[in-house]
Design brief:
By secondary structure, the protein is an alpha+beta fold. The chain has two domains: 37 residues; 181 residues, Alpha-Beta Complex (endopeptidase fold (from Nostoc punctiforme)), CATH 3.90.1720. Helix content is 34%, strand content 17%. It contains nine helices and nine strands. Strands 7-6-5-4-8-9 form a six-stranded antiparallel beta sheet. A three-stranded antiparallel beta sheet has the order 1-2-3, with no helix packed on it. β5 and β6 form a beta hairpin. α7 packs across α8.
Amino acid sequence: MKHSRRRFRILAVCLAICVFLGACVSFLAVAEALVDRTARVLPSYAREDLSAILQKDRDDWTDDDYETLQRQTGILSRETLGEIDPAVLTSYQDALFFEGEVRHELVSFTTPHDVLYDPVKDAPYKAPIVPMQAGDIVLTSTCHTFGWRNGHAVLVLPDHRILCSVAPGELSEIMRFTNDAAIPWFCTAANFMVLRLKGVDGQSRRALAEQAESELVGIPYSLAVGIFMKKDQGKSKKGTNCSHLVWQAYYNAGYDIDTDGGPVCTSRDISMSDLLEVVQVYGFDPVSLW
């Protein structure tokens, strides 16, 4: 009789564990399904013919023309629009309105990255990205963990390089672009933004990037920054992560780009900073952004 009761208790415990694990799996599956809906947002307005504007001399573009180009290409910076060859602006428009197919690629065991595929070619779709300057920030919301879009962010350095913190077990490092105008990992993502510090000249932004390069390489990846260790690492350099690294680079130069000023800085916090201008938006709605 005692043995039967013991077996029953063991079976009951095992059943409870199975039910709990099943509930967890179901919850995570639902969370991932819901987060998939936000992987890529197409513009909430129709595509327009840009030929009449692009046939004009750039000096003749009106305010309305600039506004149309901004909404149709995702290039929100007038200065940048003025620097890009008008003949290639339609390629930015094509990308902004390209629906594609979102697929997952693992960044780490727990973190999928949403990649946009061309279903006809069965290959990643590569979007054009604006020419970047030292001190710029590139970020995306396409990395997500257990239903939370933690995103990813990097700092642009001089000479077509980026400073980044990628994953647990790795140190912050410098990577090089494969060409002058693209970071392939971001260009094949379902969305990205390029941000630039407002009201500061290029030389000062370059100095910010060079300072970050000299101070923020080789720091262990940590999700505990701002929780179990100080947010402002100062000279201790005990831990960082992608968005924290970008925040720390700017904070060291005197700019706090964490929108809510909380203990943890996320990529979304950075994207909403009033100190930053959105140079290009892709896969996010150009009006509502993230």
